[in-house]
Design brief:
Blueprint lengths: L1 H21 L5 H23 L11 H10 L1 H14 L2
Amino acid sequence: MKLIVLAVLCISLLLLVYIIFRRKLGFGWMTVFGAHLALSALGIYVVNFSGIFTEVYIPLNPMTIGTVMILGLPGVALLIGLKLTIFG
């Protein structure tokens, strides 16, 4: 099973590298990715330490930051809603 997962990971990595170099994307996408990553972490940080929701603390981990990166600010609202609903 581990061998299959490793093979899928290697093939995916090779295909991603092929796409990056084939389309000549360069490294501009890394700037956009980094900006989204920083803004996502900042959005979660603001919610945690602003005092707007005193009973809500959203941990800064790859899952929460990834959710906010994909969904944007509605992702922060989603995480707050989940935190209040499930753990409130």
